[in-house]
Amino acid sequence: MTGPAATRDELSIVDALAQLSFLIHGTLERRASEHDLSIIQTRLLGVLRDRRPSMNELARLLGLDKSSVTGLVDRAERRGLVVRVPSTEDRRTVLVSLTDHGRSLVSQASAQFEADVSTLLDCLPPSDRDAIAGLVSRVLVAHAAARGVDLFATVGTQGSPTWP
Amino acid sequence: MTGPAATRDELSIVDALAQLSFLIHGTLERRASEHDLSIIQTRLLGVLRDRRPSMNELARLLGLDKSSVTGLVDRAERRGLVVRVPSTEDRRTVLVSLTDHGRSLVSQASAQFEADVSTLLDCLPPSDRDAIAGLVSRVLVAHAAARGVDLFATVGTQGSPTWP
DNA sequence: TATTGTTATACTCTATAACTATA
DNA sequence: TATAGTTATAGAGTATAACAATA
Q1: From CA A21, how far away is CA A152, in angstroms rounded?
Q2: B121 contact residues in A (CB cutoff 8 A)
Q3: Could you read off the pLDDT of A57-106 as tens digits, one per residue?
């Protein structure tokens, strides 16, 4: 209905992107678990790389209920990956900050994951890789624009990626 | 290290694919939850569309421990989405089969998800969509071949996609 | 009164280990 | 003895509702 069926050696665009997504998601899951991290724990550490948000802001950034974030941060704090710091401005507020250990862990996991994705693309010549990057960027920019977001304004000041 | 940094309006190939993966994964999650399905429940129903596997085979297909599959199938059966059928060949074996309700649910969720991904690509002209499909297919085929799998031999007889 | 965060509770998902029934 | 599946148990992750402390 939505497009041509797959031929002998090419998937439909929908199947191709769906399979690629599962492949990349699984790669991240595997790399994270080598450090005993789940995907959500990795995302938690990821968003803390260039932020020191309150529990409330964290809930919004991760798309979770605040009570879920309490448990998430509890477990990460118990492992020494993050610390809770009382805010000096509002005594109701708790800020969450990465420890050196947490930063080291997320840096390793990210670097390995990026290497995995790079390796996955080794079968393509550089010109084809650039072509994919350009086309996918257009899709992402259009999608972000459709919800009133500038994709490039959301990247942290140090340029850390927005995906983990 | 692994490639050029992102420029003003284009992401690096790794960032682009990682973000796209999270976007597509989130889309599937949202669509599934409209039918009160988790991603793993959707995958369960998906693999049953053209198979009637034993619990053991199901565990292998989903990459889960057999005890996890017991609970998964319990909950799906309680909702009337699947049924357990005793095997006539081996009285230890239990086969799992989709009910009409389960089939209807997974068909709706899949169709909506495919439409979502199609919509996401509306910003590209058909020639660019074909280009992405071709390039991504090459990546997936190369990856499958590297682990000794023929990507196109794994698709079910009715051609249902392998991703859900 | 409104907001921030935690607690209590319940459910899904996952794995390991022990168990039952069958081969 | 080996295999198929379930049960017991433990823990992560999630949400809703009720709560305490602060604004």
Answers
A1: 22
A2: 13, 139
A3: 999 999 999 999 999 999 999 999 999 999 999 999 999 999 999 999 99
Contact B163 A118 (CB under 8 A): no
pLDDT tens track for A27-71? 999 999 999 999 999 999 999 999 999 999 999 999 999 999 999
Judge if the beta carbon of A91 is closer than 7 A to nucleic acid strand C.
no
Name the helix (H) or strand (E) containing A94: strand A94-98
d(CA A126, CA A144): 26
Give the Cα separation of B128 and A76 in Å (integer).
Answer: 43
Bridge partners (DSSP) of residue A97 are A83
- Subset of residues 1-60 in chain A with CB less than 7 angstroms from any atom in strand D: 38, 40-41
How far apart are the C-alpha atoms of A123 and A129, rounded to whole Å?
10
Q: Return the H-helix or E-strand segment holding A119.
A: helix A100-120
The dihedral formed by the CA atoms of B4, B8, B14 and B19, expressed in degrees to the nearest 10: 170
Supply the pTM of this predicted model: 0.89
Short-list B96, B22, B11, CA closest to B60: B96
- In angstroms, the CA A71 to CA B59 distance is 29
Residue nearest to nucleotide C17 (CA to C1'): B67
User: B50 CA to chain A: closest CA distance, Å?
Assistant: 17
Closest partner residue to B114 among A14, A113, A128, by Cβ? A14
Q: Is the dihedral of CA A11, A16, A18, A20 positive or negative?
A: positive
Report the distance separating Cα B84 and Cα B67, nearest Å.
15
Q: Which amino acid is at B159?
A: G
